[in-house]
Amino acid sequence: MINSLLETISLWIIPAIILLILFIGLLKKLPIYELFIDGAKDGAKIGINIFPYLLAIITAITMLRESGAIEALGTTCQNFLNLIHLPADVLPIIITRSLSGSAVLGILSDIAANHDINSYTTRLASIMAGSSETTLYVITVYFGAIGIKKYRYALITGLLADLAGIVAAITVTYWFFG
Q1: What is the pLDDT of residue 73?
Q2: Cβ(79)–Cβ(114) under 8 Å?
Q3: Per-residue model confidence (pLDDT) at position 24
Q4: What's the pLDDT tens digit per position in 128-163?
Q5: Three-state secondary structure readout of the chain
Q6: Closest by CA position to 158, among listed 137, 128, 173
Q7: Rounded Cα–Cα distance for residues 129 and 45 (Å)
Q8: Where are the domains of the chain?
Q9: How many angstroms separate the CA atoms of 16 and 29, rounded?
Q10: CA–CA distances in Å: residue 115 to residues 11, 98, 119, 122
């Protein structure tokens, strides 16, 4: 009953929001199509402005993964990782989470393919994938797009929040599934 209700709501929530926006625009007698086109133009300009930042992030992530640096770090730190109940397979998620959400989803998909879906490693990777923000991506892309140059405190705060998310993910996963 409740699952059916939630499925119905999730199916109709986006179309309902779009219809609500259109309805309010019509009530206010706004030029809806022209405003939509203006928004699309602004979005295209932002996309062009943030492209170099996205390219730099994607290049850095690819270099780390393909060079084997992440795997080498996991091998080097194996004893410490065992102490904190952190499988080495999850280390790439910790390293790339602040950079790219899509890279983390790719890593998570690899972990799920190589481990049982109900394994501690897969559960920890899943919780980590959703427990923090792509801090460096946000700072690079969004701050770069609007020209903010002094972002030191935002960076420190974001990385501390990422660390808190990682620690919480390890703790919760070990508590529930360890």
Answers
A1: 82
A2: no
A3: 94
A4: 998 878 888 788 777 877 778 787 788 899 889 999
A5: CHHHHHHHHHHHHHHHHHHHHHHHHHHCCCCHHHHHHHHHHHHHHHHHHHHHHHHHHHHHHHHHHHHCHHHHHHHHCHHHHHHCCCCHHHHHHHHHCCCCHHHHHHHHHHHHHHCCCCCHHHHHHHHHHCCCCCHHHHHHHHHHHHCCCCCHHHHHHHHHHHHHHHHHHHHHHHHHHC
A6: 137
A7: 30
A8: 1-30, 43-177
A9: 20
A10: 31, 24, 7, 7
Distances (CA, A) of 1 to 4, 10, 16, 75, 155: 5, 14, 22, 48, 44
Q: Which amino acid is at 151?
A: Y
Token pair in block for residue 2 = 């409740």
Please give the single-letter amino acid code of residue 125: A
